[in-house]
Specification:
23 helices; 4 strands; disordered N terminus; binds L-captopril; mainly alpha; binds zinc ion; two-stranded antiparallel ribbon; 58% helix; two-stranded parallel ribbon
Length: 616
Amino acid sequence: MIRSRLLQTVAFILLARHQLPAATPTIAEAQAFMNRAEAELAKLNVVDQRAQWIHETYITDDSECLAAEQDEKYIARTTELVTEGRKFETLNLPPDLKRKFRLLRLSLAMPAPHDPKLREELTQIASGLGSAYSKGKYCPDGDKKSGDKEKCYGIDDLDERLAKSRDPKQAAEMWAGWHKVGAPIKSQYARFVELSNQGARELGFADTGALWRSNYDMTPEQFSADLERLWAQLDPLYKELHAYVRRKLVAKYGPAADRKDGMIPAHLLGNMWAQEWGNVYDIVAPPAAPQAYDIGQILQQRKTTPKQVVQYGEDFFHSLGLQSLPGTFWQRSLLTRPADRDVVCHASSWDIDNDQDVRLKLCIHGTTDDFTTVHHELGHTYYYLAYRKQPYLFKGGANDGFHEAIGDAIALSITPEYLKKIGLIQQVPPPAADIPLLLRTAMNKIAFLPFGLMIDKWRWEVFSGQVKPDGYNKAWWTLREQYQGVAPPVDRSEADFDPGAKYHIPSNTPYARYFIAGIVQFQFYRAMCRAAGYSGPLNRCSVYGSKAAGDKLEAMLELGQSKPWPEALKRMTGEDRIDASAMVEYFQPLLTWLKEQNKGQKIGWTVAANPLLAQR
Ligand code: X8Z
Ligand code: ZN
């Protein structure tokens, strides 16, 4: 009797332990689970960040392995926590907690399979893809001298040389030379896509692209439609710019720039990916334009050090009332390419310990592009610092486009008046310089948009399986031709893998963020200008020194991703939609001028049946 009663009790306890928590989890349990999850991930993340930092600033087989291992641990634990957390899904959670569960599920840009072997394979491939790109070199004198480091160029050197080159043949050689970095990583990339997709499916998404598109506080379909809406607002402006620039390039280079289909050969725009065209502004400058200042030239003449370049940026943020950068920032950042080892030169901003250990990693050459890139990167840095008091899962941009837009919004304030104020130029150009200056800005900002859009259009097609490895390059050039109206300078085939020659593909960095940033930065800028009490033409506004503008900015930054992005946007701008109206307002005088210049000219281009062929 006693025995049987004891057995009954034991059976009851076992049943209860087995079933109760699963059947009736409470909100308090969900909260406790989330607290533990955040604490654990924060800790793992710091170790992961340190391993990635070491890898990217000191590429060796060992650092690659260790970085992959830490990534693997972080991804594995995140995936487990998502699975464990599913038991709370049906609860009516408070909004903040609910948001954290959503963000946790969306937090991996590279989801990985549960199977440890496959997960390990994926993280190793990913680490290797990053290294392969960053070790890439172009050696003009061919293989026999390729061991001679003096004769080989990394992408930072090539960027600078291509920006200055005015010889179409030499530019085409550099272009083709660099693009060779893609082919050897194609098969690895294809495997990466398979494995990451498997991870995405296990998390409940159709594929990795669908996971990325789900991270914008709206459905993935709404997000895609929103991008189309924005592009439709700006496409006409791009087409006017394209037509004008093409005509000027043809005038300078003749047949080398003149294609019957109306496209621009991609190597003539002063940038390896034809994504920003400001470096060839001199070719398209209106004949009567007053002499334009060249920030890169000024910095180089003055022998401005890389640290001083960064200090210009810091000083700007400081003038808005934001804090100075911590001492460790200056001790730990990497600002130039080391002579004796491979590093990832592509600029990035780091938040190592989710607190004050922020750093930059870039290879500064003192060019105009470096000057703006520094402001871009410091935008990330100040975002990190502003939201560092938020809980772990709320540390992030309101959406990833916001993170990319902050520094750019600040850099829009680098006006002639500002440059004079800080002593970089002596005289403010006359009002007649407004259109030329706007044109120069448009060469970067407007030219970038179709590139910003097509990269992830390509990747979404790849992740969804619509484009298979045997069609990677064709799909890439179809989109580049369709959106950008640029064509390859030399014939391409599927033996090439041109997406692999753009950093964000091997590094698996989502790219729609830059398209969003390209537009929303003008909304941020306009809001700061208004807060600063400015009411003149938007393109002449600089918020340098305005604490009111800084307060607006901080009010949004400190939210991190704790609220849906429309709320964050509203806090800063009073608007709750991303919209091109501020960008259109900024460029309106230029649009009128371009239309005048293009009168009677053909606008646009025809896309050919085979986008892989060079000259038609
Ligand atoms: O990758 C970057 C930054 C780092 S987040 C330097 N950008 C994109 C690119 O270089 O392709 C900034 C503009 C677009
Ligand atoms: Zn960035």
